[in-house]
Specification:
It is a single chain. It is built from 3 helices and 5 strands, in the order ββαβαβαβ. It has a 5-stranded mixed sheet with strand order 1-2-3-4-5. A hairpin with a 2-residue loop joins strand 1 and strand 2. The two termini are 21 Å apart.
Amino acid sequence: MQATILTEAGKATIKLSGRFDFNTHRDFRGAYEPLVADPAIRTVVVDFNDVDYLDSSALGMLLMLRDKLGGANKEIALAGVRGNVKQVLDIANFGKLFQIS
């Protein structure tokens, strides 16, 4: 997995590509930790447009990010969700926890 950060007017987008699984834990955490600490960022969007696979550990990483952002009074949304990624998020009922588009 590769993570690219784009920031614009208080919103940060974490654009992911490839497989989002246990092996990417450090990379994902390294991408979002500066955003949690940045007072200028109010919303974080995780872009799944180029993600072709995610597993249960990726779900756990998203929940951890949600908790950290919530503790910093920031919002989170998931975007570009489709195909297998959408199925996994639907099965896990993540639509009740995240704004998904």
